[in-house]
Amino acid sequence: MLGIILAYYFFKGRAKTWYKEWKTEYESQIRKDAVDRSRAVLKGKVGEQFAPFFSAFDYEPSDARFIGSPVDYIIFEGHSEENPKGVTFADIKTGKNSKLNPMQRGFKRAVERGKVSWETIRLEDFDE
């Protein structure tokens, strides 16, 4: 029993020492990684907002409406010319490995299958 108690205190002390050494060695790498990820997210957010002003955006910027989630833009093609031509859902990706998330993929499939509709919702009691 005494051996177990001595081993416990020995390894408890060693574990704390090992943890402190590991933390000292890797803390700066962990912080740098966190800062890099934060910058990438911020860059993506800025890119989403300014996308209509980049040459890769093939639509009239004034036709685009930013909604942010679950897609970044709904583009009402022809709106600025008062000549409706179509509606496009668009998501902006800035990273080389950026992909649609599962929810976005689901909506993309729904649009591709033609599962899109129009509904006018009247609020009858609103003007009383």
TrEMBL record:
Pfam families given in the database record: Endonuc_Holl
Span of domain Holliday junction resolvase-related: 14-122
InterPro entries to which the protein is assigned, alphabetical: Hday_junct_resolvase-rel_dom (IPR019287)
UniProt name for this protein: Holliday junction resolvase-related domain-containing protein
Native source species: candidate division MSBL1 archaeon SCGC-AAA259D14
Lineage: Archaea, Methanobacteriati, Methanobacteriota, candidate division MSBL1
